[in-house]
Amino acid sequence: xxxxxxxxxxxxxxxxxxxxxxxxxxxxxxxxxxxxxxxxxxxxxxxxxxxxxxxxxxxxxxxxxxxxxxxxxxxxxx
Length: 78
Fold this sequence. Notes:
The chain is mainly beta. 0% of the residues lie in helices and 45% in strands. The chain starts with 7 loop residues before the first strand and ends with a strand.
């Protein structure tokens, strides 16, 4: 599946269990299956940069995922 910017996605599986992760913490947590986030950039070759934030809007992590690792939760068609 191809994703668009601002798509809300869920981590469906992790083909790479440990990956480079950015975030505000000195050591941001690794993404887990079930985490949800927003596609913030399409990197080509079915790779996407996804940002996971808390319910109150604080960034937790940002990481790259292959499309096969993600499932669409919601899309703003507006």
